[in-house]
TrEMBL record:
Residues 498-535, 651-698 are annotated as: Disordered. Gene3D superfamilies: Calponin-like domain (1.10.418.10), Cysteine Rich Protein (2.10.110.10), FAD/NAD(P)-binding domain (3.50.50.60). It comes from Rotaria sordida. Belongs to the Mical family. One of its GO terms (molecular function) is FAD binding. This is F-actin monooxygenase. Residues 522-532, 680-697 have a biased composition (Low complexity). It catalyses: L-methionyl-[F-actin] + NADPH + O2 + H(+) = L-methionyl-(R)-S-oxide-[F-actin] + NADP(+) + H2O. It is an enzyme of class 1 (oxidoreductase). InterPro entries: CH_dom, CH_dom_sf, F-actin_Monoox_Mical, FAD-bd, FAD/NAD-bd_sf, Rossman_Mical, Znf_LIM. GO terms for cellular component: cytoplasm.
Length: 808
């Protein structure tokens, strides 16, 4: 009898290995668990408990080969034999390849993991290009046990559906719980210290997920991310229309002879595309063909060709309107794809391509603008309510949409999920939330720049530790001040920073604590409403503020709501010091981010004594809508700015701005056109800084600017006109890169060079840079300045050193 039971279990395991649909995989695994009498409530959910039972019960050669692979992977030191996250409960939204692969990592760490998927089938036939390290990773997890053709010979691609089946089987073996037909709605906050974080799902009466409590929530459901609190930005380039289609592979002899096209572009093989256009009137930029479970084609078509073939009905300048369903003839689109596929495969005239079906049961052909890409502004958040914390993270396309012609989608997706698993490990070790966020956001800055060429070559040593994968991983490239807004707590954190390290802990938020924190805040202005002197001072400050911000179309009143988006404060700073802030980049709907920018400027550039506790209290008050505390904090900040700008060394400048007639004495020698070019940036900075110290020098410089832009015309009317304009408009400054004029409101100063924000890019890879993630390189011989991302700056420095040594 024991022998029969063993044989039955091994046979069920073989059925499980060969299952090819979402439903059959789940059903066959349930049958396997029932045959060996596994009760999850008894054996537990974490610490790889299910996996340990399976390895002891299943002893066939195929199962043993799988156990060997998984055991080797699970022996990495980060997992601590499945005890690293034994107390963690994880919920993953989305059962795509990235979500399932992350679930495997959570199970290896020892956490209990539940995956919810709103669909009940795997229907995505599109084929993914696999980076070398992904092939190594999947092989080490036993992918060939479930799919013998995986990465055979020169094949470096796999369909999404097949990859999902492989990862689903591995996840189930490791104890991951997966529930189809379940839709995530929103998180449910704990209302007491006795409760934990839960979520609202549909159906609401689900026996497991409706009562599941967790401390980590992962968004892996694609660009339509359902997790709240994450902002996304869109990158859109020149219109490029992509078409993907899948045809059924009947595995006939003729189909086996079709040659794959790994990627051919018009500029490299013009004859191919010229013949295609002559024979079919189809004009393409490039085409890719992979043969897998389906015949998968992806191509870039020119808009005029689509209009001529009747695929697009009417031409519109807006891409969304152009490619809307009501403007696309689906029948002509299918015909267009078939003609292109027949030409690319050189099939016989008798052969007819048959479309595969998508999850709606329609022909699997799509047309889209692939230059519209989304990426999340941040990769993580931590929320705390009633002493219960939840770590929220994004992975896959929810985090970073890749540019499909580079084939980087699944490559960057796997890198991002490994980084996410590392953050979960740190969170499970009870590290301070801000330190977890700093490290996660710092590593996220490296993700979009990663390629197979600039990451480490020994793929066998890859783990969830970023240092094993990135060549130059800096876990502290972000500062605590930059990511503080990502930590949303209902308690007041009393945090001191020293070299970007958190030293002290936080204390609970109580009414008593609120009063103490504001008493400790420096307030030159009396906050007592009963003091008439204090009220007079407040009125003076608000009048001064209102006079400035009116020119920025900001209307303020004496209440807290006028300052909640921080634009009034930033306008004051920009009015006096436009070199410190890019006012146009501020967004009214992101007040916390605006306040962080203001705090950084006040602390680092203006050296104003703004208490850290007041900063934290202000941000927390905004989240909780405590208007009285917002009003008090706003008064303190406004008084500091008033004292610094109005009373110190800018009072004369303010008077000049207010006057409606010129107050400068002009002498005829000064009005002569300057023979030497005027350095606009230096003049403006010097004039702003030393205005109070030397008024005569200021007069000469302003007069010189008038002469420079009046072409030597000394007539009184022309002089007066130029002088009046100069009171409201400074000398034009030109961008360091594009050499075009930069208006004052668009000023973005880097290394004493003024430029447009959009021009601040890496000279090598053209990656958009920020003031927190760039490096400057000065050529030793020419003195030429160039800006680079961290990776390319390192390579540039090495090349410069090499050239210097050769010359020596």
């Amino acid at each position: 009898m024991p022998t029969d039971i063993t044989n039955t279990s091994d046979e069920l395991f073989e059925i499980f290995v060969n299952a090819q649909t979402f439903k059959t995989i789940l059903h066959s695994f349930d049958d396997l668990c029932q045959s060996i009498r596994i009760d999850r409530k008894i054996i537990g959910y974490g610490k790889r408990s299910l996996y340990k039972v399976l390895t002891s019960k299943l002893t066939s050669w195929k199962s043993k080969s799988l156990w060997t692979k998984i055991d080797k992977r699970g022996s990495q030191k980060e997992y601590e034999n499945g005890n690293a996250c034994a107390d963690m409960k994880v919920c993953i939204v989305g059962a795509g390849p990235v979500g399932l692969r992350l679930a495997i990592e959570c199970a290896l760490l020892g956490a209990r993991c539940i995956v919810v998927e709103k669909r009940d089938r795997f229907s995505r036939h599109n084929v993914l290009h696999l980076w070398p390290y992904i092939i190594t990773d999947l092989r080490n997890l036993g992918a060939k046990v479930f799919y013998g053709k995986f990465a055979t010979g020169q094949i470096e691609h796999i369909s999404i559906r097949q990859l999902q089946c492989i990862l689903l089987k591995i996840a189930l073996v490791l104890g991951v719980e997966i529930y189809p037909n379940v839709t995530f709605i929103d998180v449910i906050e704990p209302i007491s210290t006795q409760q934990a974080w839960r979520a609202h799902f549909k159906p609401e009466a689900h026996p497991i997920v409706s009562t599941y409590e967790f401390s980590v929530l992962i968004g892996a459901d694609g660009r339509r991310n359902s997790l709240q609190g994450f902002q996304h930005k869109e990158f859109r380039g020149k219109l490029a229309i992509g078409i993907t289609c899948n045809f059924i592979n009947h595995h006939t002899r003729e189909e086996q002879n079709f040659e794959e096209i790994s990627g051919v572009a018009k500029i490299y093989n013009p004859q191919f595309f010229s013949e295609l256009q002559q024979q079919t009137s189809i004009d393409l930029e490039n085409i890719v063909y992979y043969k897998n479970d389906t015949h998968y084609f992806v191509m870039t078509a020119k808009k005029q060709s689509l209009l001529d073939k009747g695929v697009i009905l009417q031409d519109y300048p807006d891409a969304a309107r152009l490619l809307a369903r009501d403007n696309v003839n689906s029948t002509q689109l299918c015909k267009f794809a078939c003609e292109a596929a027949q030409f690319a495969t050189k099939c016989s005239t008798q052969f007819a391509f048959e479309f595969a079906e998508d999850h709606h049961g329609a022909a699997d052909v799509q047309m889209f603008d692939f230059t519209s890409l989304f990426h999340a502004v941040n990769a993580s958040r931590i929320i705390e309510r009633n002493g219960k914390q939840i770590l929220m993270l994004l992975v896959g396309d929810s985090l970073l949409e890749s540019f499909w012609p580079t084939g980087s989608g699944i490559g960057l997706g796997f890198f991002g999920l490994f980084d996410t698993a590392w953050s979960i490990l740190k969170f499970a070790k009870h590290e301070h939330p801000l330190k977890v966020l700093v490290e996660r956001e710092s590593i996220y800055m490296l993700l979009s720049q990663s390629t197979p060429e600039n990451t480490k070559n020994n793929h066998q040593l890859y783990s969830i530790n970023p240092a094993t994968r990135y060549q130059n991983s800096n876990s502290k490239s972000c500062t605590i001040d930059e990511i503080r807004y990502l930590y949303d707590s209902d308690s007041i954190p009393t945090i001191d920073m020293n070299n970007n390290h958190v030293i002290s802990n936080k204390s609970n938020r109580t009414p008593t604590r609120r009063t103490q924190s504001f008493k400790q805040a420096p307030s030159p202005l009396s906050l007592s409403s009963s003091s008439s002197d204090g009220n007079n001072q407040q009125e003076t400050v608000f009048e001064w503020c209102e006079e400035i911000v009116n020119s920025y179309n900001i209307n303020i009143k004496n209440n807290s709501k006028s300052f909640q988006n921080c634009l009034a404060f930033c306008a004051i700073v920009h009015y006096y010091r436009p070199d410190l802030i890019n006012f146009k980049s501020l967004q009214p709907d992101r007040p916390i981010s605006n306040f962080q920018i203001l705090f950084d400027i006040m602390h680092n550039q203006l050296s104003l004594p703004l208490d850290r506790k007041l900063q934290n209290s202000l941000i927390l008050s905004m989240k909780s809508s405590i208007e009285e505390r917002i009003r008090q904090s706003s008064i303190v900040i406004l008084q500091l700015l008033y004292t610094h700008f109005h009373h110190d060394h800018h009072e004369q400048q303010l008077k000049q701005r207010r006057s409606s007639t010129p107050s400068l004495e002009i002498s005829s020698p000064t009005l002569q056109k300057s023979k030497k070019p005027i350095d606009n940036t230096n003049n403006i900075n010097t004039n702003t800084t030393n205005n109070n110290n030397n008024n005569n020098n200021s007069t000469v410089k302003v007069s010189a600017l008038v002469a420079h832009y009046s072409n030597g015309d000394t007539s009184s009317s022309a002089n007066n006109y130029n002088l009046i304009n100069l009171q409201s408009e400074r000398a034009p400054t030109f961008c360091f890169y594009c050499k075009e004029k930069v208006s004052i409101q668009d000023w973005f100063v880097v290394e004493k060079n003024v430029l447009h924000v959009k021009c601040f890019k890496c000279d090598t890879c053209h990656l958009q840079l920020r003031k927190t993630n760039y490096q400057v390189l000065i050529e030793p011989h020419t003195g030429k300045i160039s800006f680079h991302c961290r990776y390319h700056n390192l390579n540039k420095q090495q090349k410069v050193k090499h050239k210097t040594k050769q010359k020596i």
